[in-house]
Write a structure and sequence with these properties.
The complex is a heterodimer of chains A (429) and B (180). With 429 residues, chain A is of the alpha+beta class. Chain A contains 13 helices and five strands. Chain A starts with 11 loop residues before the first helix and ends with a helix. The chains are: A alpha+beta (429), B mainly alpha (180).
Chain lengths: 429, 180
Amino acid sequence: MRLRDHGDEMAPELERELEAIDRALAGEGVDAELAELASLATDLRDQRPQADESWAAELDERAEAGFPRAGGSRLHDLLDRVRAIRPIRLIAPAGAAASLLVAVVVGISVLREDAADSPVQPAAQEPGAAVQGDDGGGEPIPLDEAIERELGEGAEPAVPGSEKSFSVRGPETGPGALSAEDAGSGAAARSSDVLPPPGGSGLAPGASKRLLDRSAQLTLTTRTERVGEVSDEAISIAERAGGIVVSSQLSERGRRAEATLQLSIPTRNLDSTLDALTDLATVRSFSEGAVDITKPFVSAQDRLKDTRAERKQLLAALAQAGSDTEAESIRKQLRDARRRISRAEADFKRIADRARRSDVFLTVSGRPDQGGWSLGDAVDDAGDVLRTGAGIALVTAAVVVPLALLLTAAWLVLSAARRYRRERALDEG
Amino acid sequence: MEQTLAAPAGQLPQEAEQARLAFEALYRANRDEVYAYVAGLLRDRTAAEDVTALAFERAYRKRRRFDPARGSARAWIFGIARNAALDELRRRQRSARLAADPEDDRAAVAEDAEVALRRAALREAIGSLEPRERELVALKFFAGLANSEIAAVLGVSESNAGTRLHRTIEKLRRACDEAS
């Protein structure tokens, strides 16, 4: 089995004597000087233990019957067949099983990804999430109109079909005495229209006080060659809704393309705009967010109101000034007040714009045409299959090879230990 | 016996029968030799019978794993028997004297006195051997294995087996000379 002779030879005398022993055991003659050795050999052979005949007969019967087990069964036969398989022959089937398992796992993962990419319907908007109901107490007016009145600008025309409205009490108007220099600034015209209602926050009593800064993220998928077309249609929809394009970007790489747009849409038209956008192509993902900005809005409105009231008081004081010095001091304060009013108006406009307009982040992602299958498509698909197969084989090897090495090492160690223990039995016996 | 002891998968009945007959031939050709070797090693008749039966049963169950390219069937069966005997030795950790064979007694009566004395001295000398030396005697003289087969069973080179066998015989010779 092992350790065959590799050139090491016995001494000639030793070989001669061993040969003499073999000849003696075979019944052949030996040299006279080795007769004693031959006699010893035959004497040793004569010491051979003889088996009991009854035991031998019983064993013969068992051997002829194939050594049946007590209560033997097909299970034992099956186990014998399994044990008879050399471990090395199990490597290939084990590797095939592992490959199949990895292929199934990869396939399930891919199917799950495809399911995640399936068309997504925009989540139904929660009723009242961004719409203020009117609970009475004062005549409700559209937010835009209220803000424009606050700022003294003309209200934007509403988009037909828009039904959203916000209940915000408009500012009350009142008399105000203005000097000539104040009239020249244009503030006079505005002040006559935008004085806030006394003692109020600008909101109709009892009305919901929520104002929201809304935004939406929308991803559409379409064929690569339609990405530009869909982007143009999205821009048209936004413009028809009174919106503008804040930024746009189109990138192409190989057979894929992607366009990203940031649209600013009047909040009152946001829902209808989103509905129209989702009809352009397959929706891959959609999310919407809202930040409550009621407090900042009210704060900005109050600050504006306060600064204007201060100016009104200064104007009244100016009319009552008793001297040029006093009048000059009051005028100086009026100049400061106008600057503060400008800042307050800017802050109010900024926060109001957040409520009036909503950002829509639109991504249009293009995929290669799923329709016709060209030779190029076949080459790409073949490459994908080969890459996937190579990946599976690599992962399988990464799993099987270390496992096989570990099992082999363990088997070698156990076998060596068993051999050692058996050999030691001879030494201790 | 260089032949397959088990029919391949998808075997025909004829091939299965041939495989069975091959194993049976191996059994019948080596039954007494295996017993003699095991008995010589364990020096216990009852244990030798159990171990010999176990060895052939294990060989039968493993017959499909026998590879002729790795050695002879004879060396293969003796290897199985050796492992079974060593397992028994480990389990018992004793060496009982082999019960006297009735045939031996009858032979002693008919023998020359000098021969009887010589063989008695030889038996005593065998009993004084180390287990490894006794194993060599059992393989060579009780089982009748050739030096190459002994080397295969022990897992050593043929020259190593021959050298160790010669040393053992020299030891027996000296023991017999001292006894006489």
